[in-house]
Amino acid sequence: MWSKTIPLLFCMFLLASAAGAQESEPARSKLVDDLRLELARLHHEIDSLKALRSADLVTQSDMLDRLEENLEKRLTYLETKIDAVSRATAPVAFNPGMTAFINFAARGDSKKVYDQADPSNEISNRPFLRTVEMELLGAVDPYASAVAVISLENQAGKDFGVDAEEAYGLLKRIPILEDAPLGMKVKIGKYRAPFGVSNKIHMHDLPWTTRPLAVARYLGTDHGEFFESGFNPTGMDINFYVPDPIPQSTMEMNLDVVRAGELTLSGGRGGAQPAYVGHLNFSRDWSNEHLLVLGLSAYEEHGSATTRLYGADVTYKWAPLEERESHSFVAGGEVFAGRHVFSDSASAVSSNSPVGWYGYLQYQTSYWLYLGLRYDWVEEPSNDRLVTRSAGAYASYYTTEFLRLRLGFEHRWSDLPVQNNVNTALFEVNLVFGSHPTEPYWVNK
Questions:
Q1: Which fold has domain 99-434?
Q2: What would the pLDDT profile of 435-445 be if each residue is shown by its tens digit?
């Protein structure tokens, strides 16, 4: 008897689930209520038929026929209702979610500081509207979604430039296979490369006001670490999970083919196309309180100029279950080692092999307040015999994911005289509105 009943019930649940992926929340809620009502009626029908059967007032064959007839009628009714609701709400479902980010920062310096790209442009002791960023994301079809991050970036106070910081399609399933082997996802377009930890994070989600020196000096920047920095090439990224025998752990891999010559370490002397990026990430969780993440990264670019950059990163986060609303601790850092070999104007072969790193600590003292320290050490990419160091302290007041305030202080030592013995006080405000944003990794709410 139940060989026919169970498949029909299963079909009803599948239809409701499929429709739920495209409906607006009120329509989905109404449909779930209707489905529950129909199931309640069905249970009542089954109980009534069982009672009649036990009283020998109806044969088993009659009971099955009547039940199947009722199921078919109700299934047809639900199919019609689901189709109507889906057609009415599908255009809304495919509208992209939109979130806007406004990042304001002011600095006060003990000596004059200049734009890294233009030594004649002073940037010390003044406020900046650093970025206005619009993030659009949404489903394209059952196989893919799309992301576009359009930013209006402050070019060290001289002007504003419009940039597609990220614009890519994300293929979540392979249409031919109707599946995603090893959880594979393919990203095609322009995106923040999966090199280390900090490079993948947008400015408004950083736990500090400035980018780490190693990220800005080696991966990419136009106007220095106070403004937007990092490596966001154009290319293709393949992300997949690697089978991991260790319990409660995850291992994933990113393999990228990108346009060469865009890494700052290349110094404008790009090699042959294309370049390659790889990142292996291992994470382990203990009791939902301790999280350890380890990563290895590599960049390879060959040709008339050869550039290699290798990195290792570590992040540890502690958030006790009994105090999750008020305390957490995060520690981490990254190490970079690069090598750039090129021919100069005299056809002589030159090389540079800089090394840099940074480490940081952050402690959440209350529901809103986060206190942090960071130390940076880099050999300059243009001359690895010159070293720059920086120490900073930060206090972030995170009211909600929509409003974030920060005070900071940095001191810098450098073999470059213009950057040596600079004290900088920092003030930052991040405003977010629109669709609900994702919480930064360092936040514990």
A1: Porin (2.40.160)
A2: 888 889 999 87
